[in-house]
Design a protein that fits this description.
The chain is α+β, with helices and mostly antiparallel strands. Helices cover 17% and strands 40% of the residues. It folds into two domains: 8-85, Elongation Factor Tu (Ef-tu), domain 3; 104-188, Elongation Factor Tu (Ef-tu), domain 3 (Beta Barrel). The protein contains three helices and twelve strands; from the N terminus they run βββββαββββββαβα. The strands form two sheets. The protein has a six-stranded antiparallel β-barrel with strand order 1-2-5-4-3-6. Strands 7-8-11-10-9-12 form a six-stranded antiparallel β-barrel. Strand 7 (104-113) and strand 8 (118-123) form a beta hairpin. It starts with 7 loop residues before the first strand and ends with a helix.
């Protein structure tokens, strides 16, 4: 589990194509300072398992499912990525509960610059809008953010200077793809209440 509070801006130092997978090596002195084989590290919001650590960098395998669902399929050597180690039991939860399981990718539509912050508009892939609510939480490239506004096609977030400086979101331009993870609580609520809502629908149909 993660909190969506980025610890370090890492750099991709190598990408190797494998059958139905890829192996990436990422430099991140902070997150590798106590990392070992089998640990989890969030890379742009994707939970990856460490398979090797050496010289301030770690290596992880990215499976086909992850490449299909996330923007990691497009990372190349030299790219900057957001890094966060798994949350430790007992620490403060600075963001919200983040699993590192990407639900889909969105596209940066526009940026509105202000003196002290910046509003970013991001397109929503089909099927995710129902999980996004105004003032709720969403993870964008591994960053826990509060939703300012939302429609069926897009949502907007406001980024403070720290987020713009210390994460990849300060560099994302219109047209760039970003990884999205909606609040897992919304998905569980939908799953748990589905039988009851379906029953209500059926009773309404029968009443006709």
């Amino acid at each position: 589990m993660f909190t969506g509070i980025v610890e370090e801006l890492g750099e991709v130092v190598a990408v190797a194509d494998l059958p139905d997978a890829a192996r990436v090596t990422i430099a991140g002195p902070l997150v590798t300072s106590d990392a070992k084989h089998g640990d989890s590290i969030s890379v742009n919001g994707v939970c990856l398992t460490v398979v090797d650590v050496a010289g301030g960098a770690f290596t992880a395998d990215v499976m086909r499912e992850t490449l299909t669902r996330s923007s990691l399929a497009k990372v190349t050597e030299g790219d900057k990525v957001n890094l966060e180690r798994a949350a430790a039991v007992g620490q403060r939860l600075g963001g919200h509960i983040v699993q590192g399981h990407v639900d889909g990718t969105g596209v940066v539509l526009a940026r509105e610059k202000s003196e002290h912050w910046e509003v970013v508009h991001i397109g929503l892939p089909p099927g995710l809008a129902r999980y996004v609510v105004e003032k709720g939480s969403i993870t964008v490239d591994g960053v826990s953010l509060t939703v300012m506004a939302v429609s069926e096609q897009e949502f907007s977030v406001s980024l403070i200077p720290t987020t713009l400086e210390l994460t990849t979101l300060g560099r994302r331009a219109p047209g760039d793809h970003v990884n999205l993870e909606v609040d897992v609580l919304a998905k569980y609520v939908e799953r748990l209440t589905a039988p009851y809502s379906q029953g209500t629908h059926l009773r309404a149909e029968e009443a006709r």
